[in-house]
Design a protein that fits this description.
There is one protein chain. The chain is α+β, with helices and mostly antiparallel strands. The protein folds into two domains: 87 residues, Roll (Nuclear Transport Factor 2, Chain: A); 123 residues, no CATH class. The chain contains seven helices and nine strands, in the order ββαααβββαβαββαβα. A three-stranded antiparallel beta sheet has the order 3-4-5, with helices on one face. The chain has a two-stranded antiparallel ribbon with strand order 1-2. β7 and β8 form a beta hairpin. α4 crosses α6. It is globular, with a radius of gyration of 20 Å. The two termini are 37 Å apart. Bound molecules: zinc ion.
């Protein structure tokens, strides 16, 4: 049976739903804000009901939606502003209208990446503390001065977090889906189950990590 997705009382196939999202993306490339109420309500429900992980991605209702170029400038993306003030990019061509199997796979991958970030966070904190002892900090992204209260220690392109993590997986010859994780007690953090894997990952990351000071807002806007 073909998958059906309901949006505001109408049902769509996966393909139809994605084609409509694509049409709206193209429609708002120039003006930016999705200001037609019907278009807005269609996208709002499409994302809120059919994103693979709305609990994590959309913790509060969508308040407004707009279209802007990606950071590389090669394509356009939907961005949503939530009622809690969060602003985030949202994908529809792989991240919405998925099968149950793909949904579980994507959630597993997110959780493994979460765990991987958790295991190296102390390295970022160390770098940040070192920067705090330095004067005249300049943001590596916008090149303006940084107030120390607003300081992040970011990965430096081309060694972004994701590229280091991917290189490590390749080097180990493991698939992200095969890494098992667990919830760490009394926190919302996750960690790898395999202690040796944790050590290995920390060492690998440390070798490749070349932090630069950035504003927290510039860092977050980069995704
Ligand atoms: Zn900046």
């Amino acid at each position: 049976m073909a998958l059906k997705f309901e949006i505001n009382g109408k049902t769509y196939s996966q393909k139809e739903a994605r084609v409509l999202c694509r049409l709206l993306l193209n429609k708002y490339k120039v003006s930016g804000a999705v200001d037609d109420l019907n278009d807005f309500l269609f996208l709002k429900e499409a994302f809120e009901r059919h994103h693979y992980n709305p609990l994590q991605k959309l913790p509060s209702p969508i308040k407004s939606i707009f279209v802007k170029p990606s950071s590389s400038g090669s394509n356009y993306q939907f961005w949503v502003v939530l009622e809690d003030g969060t602003e985030t990019h949202i994908g529809f061509s792989k991240k919405c209208f998925v099968t149950e199997r793909i949904k579980n796979k994507l959630i597993h991958e997110d959780n493994v990446i979460d765990a991987a970030r958790h295991h190296i966070r102390y390295q970022q904190d160390e770098a940040r503390n070192n920067f705090k002892n330095t004067n005249n900090l300049i943001c590596a992204i916008c090149r303006k001065a940084i107030n120390k209260a607003d300081l992040h220690a970011d990965h430096t392109p081309p060694d972004s977090f994701k590229s280091i993590f991917k290189a490590w997986l390749d080097y180990k010859g493991i698939n992200i889906i095969d890494i098992t994780y667990m919830d760490l007690h009394n926190t919302e953090q996750r960690g790898f189950q395999d202690k040796e894997l944790i050590n290995d990952w920390r060492i690998y990351h440390k070798l490749k990590f070349n932090p630069q000071p950035t504003h927290s807002r510039c860092n977050i806007a980069q995704g």
